[in-house]
Amino acid sequence: MHAPLKFDRRALQDIEQGRSEGTVQTMNKILSAFGLKLGAMRKA
């Protein structure tokens, strides 16, 4: 059994179809389903 998604599927569709750029919070919710987190790194 899969864990329930913790983000709105419509938000993901809007991002995929270019209707929204998404927010950091939304991106982190989507990425957390894969054990990831949005971040930034200092340029080397």
What does this structure look like?
The N and C termini lie far apart (42 Å). This protein is 39% helix and 0% strand. It has helices at 9-16, 24-32.
How would you summarize the topology of this molecule?
Elements: H1 9-16, H2 24-32
Give the C-alpha Rg.
12 Å
How many helices in DSSP terms? 2
Strand coverage percent: under 5%
Shape: flat
Characterize the largest beta sheet: strand count, sense, and whether it forms a barrel: none
Taken in chain order, the helices and strands follow as HH
On the 0-100 scale, what is the average pLDDT?
A: 83
Low-confidence stretches: none
The secondary structure category is: mainly alpha
Helicity, as a percent range: 25-40%
Task: Give the N-to-C terminal Cα separation.
Answer: 42 Å
- Structure summary, number of beta strands: 0
Summarize the structure.
By secondary structure, this protein is mostly helical. It has two helices and no strands.
Question: What distinguishing features does this structure have?
Answer:
44 residues, mainly alpha
